[in-house]
């Protein structure tokens, strides 16, 4: 690989983003974005969960540790949760997790919680664009492994 | 095991006693004392076993271990995390000389409190310990080296690694005995199982398949708290679940086997038993559990900032959720971003 090639590769860093989307709202929103043929960046890899409250902080940490540059958790709008308050639990979990990530040296902006309803295909696409832009700015997730192996 | 059985065992196998070894690495020494916490049962152990190596109590040299045959030690109880090249060398050496290797105590099992040093690099640790510390006078700024040449020859020190590891990250471990230190009952269960040759499958944690909550005597109801308190901030400690009173207690995310002794003394669980069965990341489980009960009325109308304010009451997330298990957590050291 020549030097110029490496440079372009760095300039066009394509983040790897994992999206945990709830079955009832955000996933349906993503579906609507798809069926309405709304364009959005292909950086997001979607994993459907029944409720955003199902997302254990462990999933997020695991994703980040195994090479995701960002994680998006999508749930129903507050008050609309199919399971009453799963989305509120998810929000608290992610806020605690963000605190932890900050103290362990990971930029907490890599984890983001959003509300997208089943009717908001356009919003879904906008959120993905926004998240992808932001993660591009933050840059690739640094290898958590330290230098001197033994 | 009752006395008769022990005697039988003794008379039948008097010439083939169990060969034990104990070693400590990066630990406080509490686990060594815990061995004696089994009280008078130590006499049963001594009747059943020969101790081949125990630096804290008996005078042995490393060359005595090196001179042993491979697999000569039946069971080696290894406590402490691995931080230096000396500890790594001994761990590897004892692995070679032992049939069964038991990680004894939180530090060996999950990394323990020394493992929190993974939040800093070796350079940062040296800087604080040897240069910045107010009680340290080091005008020449000397930092530990592995080798230094003096008039009389070369002096050496073990290498201080950049990170702390649990025992199973260094060598193959057969059994795990968590706790800080392990509860005497668990120690006796382990020794009994070894003597009777009724050990569980390799890789098992010697401990119940329950969480600390399961053993805790406090009454638990539907929990909901809106603020987090330290134990001294409670005006009166009620005889009910500490989490319900607003104190962070790691009971739900921690493996039991300790008989919830800390809770008996109104001290919250800090998680020395390691992750609860079927969980791989204790801190993540606890974050999840805590988030479920920590909430405010009318949260649906609230903005993220208000929730952040609520969560900010958790002052030290790593020290709270990963007090004993940072090296074995999914993200096990400070990232350099």
Written as H for each helix and E for each strand, in order along the chain, the element string of chain B is: HEHHEHEEHEHHEEEEHHHHHH
Q: Largest chain-chain contact?
A: A-B, 32 and 43 residues
Number of helices of chain B: 13
Shape descriptor of chain A: globular
CATH C-level class of chain A: Alpha Beta
CA(first)-CA(last) distance of chain B: 55 Å
Q: Strands of the largest sheet of chain A, in order across it?
A: 2-1-3-4
Assign the CATH architecture of the largest domain in chain B: 3-Layer(aba) Sandwich
What's the total count of β strands of chain B?
9
> Overall pLDDT of chain B, averaged?
89
Low-confidence stretches of chain A are: 146-150
Order of helices and strands of chain A: HEHEHEHEH
Instruction: Compute the number of structural domains of chain B.
Output: 3
Show the helix and strand layout:
The complex is a heterodimer of chains A (150) and B (337).
Chain A: H1 3-11, E1 17-22, H2 26-35, E2 44-49, H3 57-65, E3 70-75, H4 86-103, E4 111-115, H5 121-138
Parallel strand pairs in A: 1-2, 1-3, 3-4
Helix pairs in contact in A: 2-5
Chain B: H1 3-12, E1 18-24, H2 30-36, H3 41-48, E2 49-53, H4 62-67, E3 73-79, E4 82-84, H5 85-97, E5 98-104, H6 106-110, H7 122-132, E6 147-150, E7 153-156, E8 160-165, E9 175-177, H8 184-195, H9 212-215, H10 261-264, H11 282-293, H12 304-311, H13 317-321
Parallel strand pairs in B: 1-2, 1-3, 3-5, 5-9
Antiparallel strand pairs in B: 4-8, 6-7
What does it look like?
- The complex is a heterodimer of chains A (150) and B (337).
- Chain A has one domain (15-138): Rossmann fold (3-Layer(aba) Sandwich), CATH 3.40.50.
- The radius of gyration of chain A is 16 Å and the shape is globular.
- The longest helix of chain A has 18 residues, at 86-103.
- With 150 residues, chain A is α/β, with parallel strands linked by helices.
- A 4-stranded parallel sheet of chain A has the order 2-1-3-4, sandwiched between helices.
- Helix content of chain A is 43%, strand content 15%.
- Chain A is built from 5 helices and 4 strands; from the N terminus they run H-E-H-E-H-E-H-E-H.
- In chain A, strand 1, helix 2 (26-35) and strand 2 (44-49) form a beta-alpha-beta unit.
- In chain B, strand 6 (147-150) and strand 7 (153-156) form a beta hairpin.
- Chain B is globular.
- Chain B has 3 domains: 3-114 and 163-195, Rossmann fold, CATH 3.40.50.700; 121-161, no CATH class; 212-328, no CATH class.
- The longest helix of chain B is centred in the N-terminal third of the chain and has 13 residues, at 85-97.
- Chain B has a 5-stranded parallel sheet, with helices on both faces. A two-stranded antiparallel ribbon of chain B has the order 4-8. In chain B, strands 6-7 form a two-stranded antiparallel ribbon.
- Chain B has 337 residues and is α/β, with parallel strands linked by helices.
- Chain B starts with a helix and ends in a 16-residue tail after the last helix.
